[in-house]
Amino acid sequence: RPVSCIINNPFIPWVSDVASSLGVPSATLWVQSCACFAAYYHFYNDLVPFPSQEKTETDVQLPCMPLLKHDEVPSFLHPSTPYAFLRRAILGQYKNLEKPFCILMDTFQELEFEIIEYMSKLCPIKTVGPLFKNQEDRLDSNITTVCSKAEDCIQWLETKPPTSVVYISFGTIVSLEQEQLNELAHGLLNSGVPFLWVIRQPLDHAGFKEPVLPDGFTEKVGDKGKIVEWSPQEEVLAHPSIACFIKHCGWNSSMEALACGVPVLAFPSWGDQVTNPKFLVDVFKVGILMSRGEAENVTSGERRSRNAWSRPL
């Protein structure tokens, strides 16, 4: 069959040019919030002031949105970002927004009603979220290792009381500094609450060392804690034993937490992660902010992590 439509993501905006040259309709899939889409749109079109080399702490007021403090603006838009190449890649799609026939957005009307209504007057937005995996696809998986790991996590959760377990996961890309990992470990140990902690090996090119837990941590925790390299996150968040979710605040996991009704402890790092807590905490009222991204780390001098675990439990 001939190709009737091409869907691309913002990091490969040139696909729209190729599709246009071939006479094939194209759509762009945006997998962050509509609020972040609006931030990039207004930055690219120079519609409101953003942080600059001269005024690095400029707060940003976008239409139909709460005021974003300078460190709540998507970090790729800051002049000091070390990821300027990602900013260029994302902004590349705004050069020819007239080419895609629509922007497919991983959100839904009831969640971001005002900003979706506003941005829909400027761009052909079609909400398609939340984009979760099909339940039957997970159940029919033939990957034995993944299935056994999923079953292992759920069986462990079955042994815990309702709303008692802290779930910790920072996604696929984000890796903690060793000192941050130590502080989280000490906070969990001192709190005495059950926890399920996903600690992934860092990506080969990320420059992070392999994470090392404090000496004796596993022995002291015993069956109160479970540490894994992977978990079936949607099933975990839907489990009645989960009390809260400590997370990096990527948009996909934020949508999963919202859909499952799980409160969030926000520990953002970069990109849209520093913007999403503004809505999780201040607008949706489902979270507590632990840190404000790259500008603020959890260190031994602050000890805030040790006091945070019991607050939502």
From TrEMBL:
Pfam families: UDPGT
GO MF term (any one): quercetin 7-O-glucosyltransferase activity
Tagged with keyword Transmembrane helix: no
InterPro entries: UDP_glucos_trans (IPR002213)
Keywords attached to this entry: Glycosyltransferase, Transferase
PANTHER family recorded: GLUCOSYL/GLUCURONOSYL TRANSFERASES, UDP-GLYCOSYLTRANSFERASE 84A1
Protein family (similarity comment): Belongs to the UDP-glycosyltransferase family.
Stated name of the protein: Uncharacterized protein
Organism: Turnera subulata
Lineage: Eukaryota, Viridiplantae, Streptophyta, Embryophyta, Tracheophyta
